[in-house]
Amino acid sequence: MLKGSVMSDVAAPPGLIDRALRRVTALWRDIASSTPAEADGIAAQMRACLEARGGEVSARSRAARLAQSYLAADHAARGEFLLALAGFDSDAAAVAEAWEAVAAAPDAAARAGAKARLRRVLEPPRLRLMTQFTTIPDGVKFLVELRADLMARMKGEPLLQALEADLRGLLASWFDVGFLELRRIDWTSPAELLEKLVGYEAVHRIRTWRDLKNRLDSDRRCYAFFHPRMPDEPLIFVEVALVEGMAASVQGLLDEKAPLLDARKADTAVFYSINNCQRGLDGISFGNFLIKRVVEVLSAEFGNLSCFATLSPIPGFRAWLDEKLEAGDTTLVTEEEAQALRLVAPPDPALAAPGAEAGVAVAETPGQTLRRLIARRGWARVEAASRQLEPILTRACARYLLAESGRGGRRARDPVAHFHLSNGARVERLNWRGDTSEKGFREACGLMVNYRYDPANIEDYHEQYAGEGKRAASPALRKLAKSFL
User: Fold this and answer.
1) What does the buried/exposed string (b/e) look like for 407-445 if buried means 16 or more CB atoms within 10 Å of the residue's CB?
2) In this predicted structure, what is the pLDDT of residue 14?
3) What is the CA 208 to chain-centroid distance, rounded?
């Protein structure tokens, strides 16, 4: 066990993955050895799977052997495996013939039959091949991991892109929210599951087992979605704090020395960390359903809860701000604000312009002053500078969240903002020094944001954002960004 040690926030603990892999491959070896090998080459093995000779035991054996071949391969050989799999595409001649039959159909009845045949011949054999993996233990998990590998390789590879689209469609149907089970994770959950929780936490790293226990205490909740074919693997999980009033600091929420709150007295549920656990399920969205289900569960358990909100990071703000300052944006800081900043943090005279009098600092534009200050390490610990920077950076962040757009021109540029707005939340409040960690300052100058989920307005806010790109926001936030809206 990892008690007392510092733990990674990037991936599941290697020992855990190795143990699970050994268990599954041992099962696959037993299945694969139940019938003799039919072919040595990967493509030949795939054709043997598609020919489906013999009964169910033979089919499972071939699928297990094929999966084993993939897991045993190195990086290059896995790429060849995926290209071979992608090569089992629809028969072009059969598709052309079926299409001509549709075009030549004399009436609606004949056309319906011709379309049905066209649909059948359009379905590539690789779909049947991938479906065969579901007959072996942990076969669904194998396909999820296969897609994760595929996504990392498919750029500039049309065949792999087509294979990924097919696999995404299969997984989307298998992982429909109707098939998912919501489970609470607490300190009595199996140790293996708790290890996975530690490994998958990528928003606020879980450093020790004491930290984990604090997040699973009686005034905390953690819920995850599971799939019946992956019962021990969380798909996505959310960590919740039951508090009085909307939380403004993640360090305060995660403080292990903070007094335990009687959950029955809490009036607010704060969702402070949401993590997708399976890279191979990216783009298959069930995070919105998770939040809504957890709201329902908490409302039923605690009738005194009147507010459901997040305490969320703003991962793209600092990069956007640096980009704007580098481009010379003149709307982010006024000359009067810059002058006040220069009084508390004067420019270094050693950086005088060439030819200028010795000891005289180079003249700065307001944007350059702001950029110089936030580039300094520890600027937030200089109280006078921090006090002057707060209104400037808060105003800029309100603009970033409510007015700046990303792909398509409508969706919010910040990915976390897009997630919550598309799920029907409203941007409620910005929190200065909400995250004082190194990561918090590197990504968002220490700012965090509360998104509020009002059950009475979730659907309306979702429709307005999805249909018109309208971002629901509190009057205070809208006022901060009004000149850009």
Assistant:
1) eeeebbbbebbbbbbbbbbbbbbbbbbbbeeeebbebbb
2) 45
3) 23
Cα–Cα distance, 480 to 471 (Å, whole number): 14
Sign of CA dihedral 65, 68, 72, 78: positive
Provide DSSP, 122-148.
HS-HHHHHHHHGGGSTTHHHHHHHHHH
Q: How many CA atoms lie within 13 A of 413 on its CB side?
A: 17
What percentage of the chain reaches a pLDDT higher than 70?
A: 89
Measure Cα distances from 115 to 69, 102, 107, 126 in Å: 38, 6, 12, 21
- Reading the block at residue 247, the tokens are 């939380």
pTM of the model: 0.84
CA distance 344 to 389: 11
Residue 54 makes CB contacts below 8 A (sequence gap 6+) with 35
Q: How far apart are CA 400 and CA 395, in angstroms?
A: 9
Tokens of 395: 């105003």
Answer yes or no: is pLDDT of 187 > 90.
yes
Residue partners of 43: CB distance under 8 A and separation at least 6: 84, 87
Catalytic residues: 312, 420
Cα Rg of the chain (Å, integer): 28
How crowded is the C-beta side of 18, counted as CA atoms within 13 Å?
3
d(CA 159, CA 152): 14
List helix spans (H) across 133-206. Answer: 139-153, 158-174, 191-200
Distance CA 321, CA 471 (A): 20
Residues 36-67: pLDDT tens digits? Answer: 444 458 888 898 888 877 777 787 888 888 99
